[in-house]
Amino acid sequence: MSFRLRLFLSFSLLWLLFLVGALYLAGQGVERALRGHLEATLREDAKRAAEAYRKGQA
């Protein structure tokens, strides 16, 4: 295998690893954002249900 081919393959592998890492980190960020939004929504729903229950008890 020639030097140029080995150099090209090594840089290609380096870029591939970089892209995989970037996609992984982006996926983690999206997952955290969606989880935070879901938790906030569930918290609000629980608060509304508790208020409705208290009003029904009074």
From TrEMBL:
Q: Which domain of life is it from?
A: Bacteria
Q: Which GO terms describe its molecular function?
A: kinase activity
Q: Which UniProt keywords apply?
A: Kinase, Transferase
Protein name per Swiss-Prot or TrEMBL: Sensor histidine kinase
